[in-house]
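Contributing new records

If you add data, match the layout below exactly. Sequence lines come first and carry their own label; structure lines follow with theirs. Keep one chain per record. Anything else will be rejected by the validation script.
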Amino acid sequence: QVQLVESGGGLVQAGGSLRLSCAASGRTFSSYSMGWFRQAPGKEREFVAAMPWSGSTTYYTDSVKGRFTISRDNAKNTVYLQMNSLKAEDTAVYYCNAGGTYYSATRYLLGGSWGQGTQVTVSS
């Protein structure tokens, strides 16, 4: 399995921006579909965004459409989540996932690799 390390979280005011990074080990990163998930206190982990290995499309949960952008740099074995116009309800621990299969924002199979998570806190 690929090893994942997230970074880039922090404390930001509402309306601000953050860019999360997820660095992956291994030589087969370009063959992995990558997803971002988040878990707020007292809530279940939820899907945020995903990009299949081909990079041909992207999926977003409705609440982040137009504000978040997922991208990947296969040369750096890294997937990013650019988060703009942040809201207090975006506060959560954000995780990346590798190796899943994504058909839509609501239909997907999780991959077996997770990072340790990075905390994002948005103050209102």
